[in-house]
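retry 2 of 3: previous attempt timed out while embedding pyridoxal-5'-phosphate. Reduced batch size to 1 and resubmitted. Inputs unchanged:
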Amino acid sequence: MELTGCFSGSKAAQLPAAQHALTCPQKAARCSRRKQPLQTRAIAAPPRPAAPEHAQPSSSSAEDVIADEAKYVLQTYIRPKFVLERGEGVNLWDSEGKQYLDFAAGIAVNSLGHSHPGWLKAVEQQAGQLCHASNLFHTEPQVRLAKLLVENTSWADRCFYSNSGTESVEAVIKFSRKYARIQAGEDAYSPESNAATEIVCFSGAFHGRTMGALSLTAKEQYKTPFQPVMPGSVTARYLDLESARQCIKKGKTAAVIVEPVQGEGGIHMSSQAFLEGLRELCDEAGALLIFDEIQCGLGRTGKLWAHEYFGVQPDMMTLAKPLAGGLPIGAVLLKQKIADVMSPGDHGSTFAGNPLVCAAGEAVMGVLLAPGFLQKVHDNGVALRHGLREKLRSNPHVKEIRGLGLISGIQLDVPAGPVVAAALEAGLIVITAGKGDVVRMVPPLIIEPEHVQQCIDILAKVIPEALAAEMPPVS
Ligand code: PLP
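retry 2 succeeded.
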């Protein structure tokens, strides 16, 4: 397994900052106040292909759209000052016709890129046939996708659908708590219970923004304004089995949730020893082990499931982001022993698993499972990190380039915002992670070696320029 490559750097420095840390609004707000002119020039992009016939030109100018967004949309994001209009393959175009190489994929969602022909055909066909019927009725795509997902794990027996990552996490919290009640021999519907309720999570984790998932998410600033979040969450240190041992307790811990590769936390890989240790601790305590593969699953690492690298099986696994190729979906895969404690009415959702999203999911799975596809994801990821290491070896601010398959991060000792902004200016979309000090690359899984090279060339040019000025180190 190819995991990391370290560079040592020297003195901390620098930060001019123009930035839209696309996933970190607070930092972006601070950085944008220090905005300075960029010195990067766009690397020559290939000519723009003609828009397909069905593409609608914008009815308003970009300026109008941005002004109306500021007026009518709740301001929980800070966005760059252009309007995306169209996507095709690995490229996006804004309303002024500027082309971008998309190495963010809608935050690890568009794994087939934009307007993938097979996906489009499946969605158009299903939308014309049956889009939504609710979970009160049988529909075929839902069952076909569940079968595909379950049969492509070595351990899961059932699938539960939701609409997003955070909802998948809410579902596993509920399943774990009910499982604990039944294991304790209780009547699950009695208001009195002494069963285990705690969920152990880890430093650096991101599991979502709803009250349960939020309580399992590490960043305090995401939680503080909304306290109290769900009680019963306990945080251990990632990759520290001793810390986990102190938190996982028989009769108290209902489940342990862990990302085999942390995405938002800064692209950190777990290890076989850590996951094996968690498996043992859970088994000893009678707790369930949950892998959150919402960002690292479904081919992102070059294997269908990230945990395949570590040879450890969970009891449940959460999925979402890329599963329906850009349509909202979430899923939980689970073992029969947990399915056995759930009864009709215990949990549900109006939209989840509708025929449209499930047909899209089947199209995505069809591509991921095609012979040789995941090997190519793996190889492109290796080439990306190798190329970046070669070009950035001597940069004192680049501390490490790490990743697995096509989830990669460049660890800086200064804020990554200026790099993200400069890359955008040069026509490359990347995003931040970690404490805002990691440049994250999660491109569509369909990229070709030429896209890898384009990304390397742009970052090799903009990173030294963007980090040339004096900047404070990341705290
Ligand atoms: N879990 C992980 C590992 C994630 O990366 C994310 C989103 O980034 C979530 C959960 C939450 O997913 P969503 O934003 O779809 O609610």
